[in-house]
């Protein structure tokens, strides 16, 4: 299957060939041999070629404005003194910039401690989820067994069913975890897993974490697209299915692994519903951002009732702090991420 880059190059060469042919026909005076339908077709193609770039620019410009407007507003507000929010002469660029909003929000969110805690939770959960979902997707793609279609139907249900339906049963399971000796071993003395990272690690370990159904589907689609001859050759050499998966399939699925890993990191990073259900004193970036309005009113305004307009500069500063690590990660990995999207099941 041709990549987007190859398709663009082919389209560019095709248009260049058409223009060269038309130029040669004009020079040789061959237009008089064309039928009226062919002449109309050439004129229509010229008109479309002239109008389409302008139309495409307007579409892209409108979409970019809709997408980038919140980011531009966030940057404009996060570094703006609070008193300038009520200045009608300021629209986008403040009269002077300040870092005090960032410093105040950093302190209120306990961002250094919160960031480390979130990174640990995200990395462990994402690595476990990538490993287990890839093995599960490989099993669905390459092996035949009884109940395969039923189990894959459950995977599809994992994508469709919202997490709110399973939260209460999972909470009861974690709050009264059995067997108790295992709970004490995992939590160093407690019989409940609530407020423990295991509420995130255990679902990821069993391919049931956040968006796990989608990741299993991505791996299944990718492994189905690999040539069957790779496995046949490995089996002839005496490789077991697990050894074949590790030595043959994983090296060929690097882009899919990276794509799923980045998706998992972002979704775990932005999750606050699952976190707020199982954590009460285990802070994450998403939970801190969710409660930032209340925390700012308590810390900066002594529990007074304040409107969003009064604290919006600190709220936007909190949003900027929250998305900065993800943006930095994407800047360094975006090339591999795009390649993974093209070569994974999402491009099929």
Automatic annotation (TrEMBL):
Domain ABC transmembrane type-1: 115-333
Record-linked SUPFAM superfamilies: MetI-like (SSF161098)
Transmembrane segments: 50-72, 115-138, 150-172, 198-219, 252-269, 311-333
Key words, A-Z: Cell membrane, Membrane, Transmembrane, Transmembrane helix, Transport
Major location (coarse): membrane
Any one annotated GO CC term: plasma membrane
Subcellular location: Cell membrane
Keyword Chaperone: no
Membrane topology: Multi-pass membrane protein
Gene Ontology biological process terms in this record: transmembrane transport
UniProt keyword annotation of Oxidoreductase present: no
Alphabetical list of PANTHER family matching this protein: ABC TRANSPORTER PERMEASE PROTEIN MG189-RELATED-RELATED, SN-GLYCEROL-3-PHOSPHATE TRANSPORT SYSTEM PERMEASE PROTEIN UGPE
Recorded family membership: Belongs to the binding-protein-dependent transport system permease family.
Descriptive protein name: ABC transporter permease
Organism: Ruminococcus albus SY3
């Amino acid at each position: 299957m041709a990549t987007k880059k190859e398709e663009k190059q082919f389209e560019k060469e095709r248009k260049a060939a058409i223009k060269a042919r038309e130029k040669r026909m004009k020079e040789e005076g061959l237009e008089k041999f064309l039928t009226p339908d062919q002449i109309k077709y050439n004129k229509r193609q010229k008109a479309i070629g002239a109008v389409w770039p302008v139309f495409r620019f307007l579409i892209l410009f409108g979409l970019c404005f809709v997408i980038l407007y919140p980011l531009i507003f966030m940057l404009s507000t996060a570094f703006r003194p609070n008193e300038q929010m009520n200045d009608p002469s300021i629209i986008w660029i403040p009269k002077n910039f300040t870092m005090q909003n960032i410093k105040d929000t950093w302190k209120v969110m306990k961002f250094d401690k919160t960031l480390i805690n979130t990174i640990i939770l995200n990395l462990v959960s994402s690595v476990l989820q990538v490993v287990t979902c890839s093995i599960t997707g490989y099993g669905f793609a390459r092996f035949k067994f009884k109940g395969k279609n039923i189990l894959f139907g459950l995977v599809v249900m994992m994508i469709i069913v919202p997490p709110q339906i399973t939260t209460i049963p999972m909470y009861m399971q974690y709050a009264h975890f059995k067997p108790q000796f295992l709970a004490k071993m995992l939590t160093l003395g407690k019989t409940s897993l609530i407020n423990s990272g295991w509420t995130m690690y255990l679902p990821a370990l069993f391919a049931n974490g956040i968006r796990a159904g989608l990741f299993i589907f991505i791996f299944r689609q990718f492994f189905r697209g690999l040539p069957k001859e790779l496995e046949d050759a490995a089996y002839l050499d005496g490789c077991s299915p697990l050894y074949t998966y590790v030595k043959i399939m994983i090296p060929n699925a690097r882009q899919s692994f990276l794509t799923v890993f980045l998706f998992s990191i972002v979704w775990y990073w932005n999750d606050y519903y699952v976190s707020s259900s199982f954590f009460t004193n285990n802070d994450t970036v998403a939970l801190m951002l969710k409660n930032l309005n209340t925390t700012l009113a308590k810390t900066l305004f002594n529990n007074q009732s304040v409107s969003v307009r009064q604290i919006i500069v600190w709220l936007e500063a909190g949003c900027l702090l929250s998305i900065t690590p993800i943006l930095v990660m994407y800047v360094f990995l975006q090339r591999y991420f795009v390649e993974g999207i093209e070569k994974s099941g999402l491009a099929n």
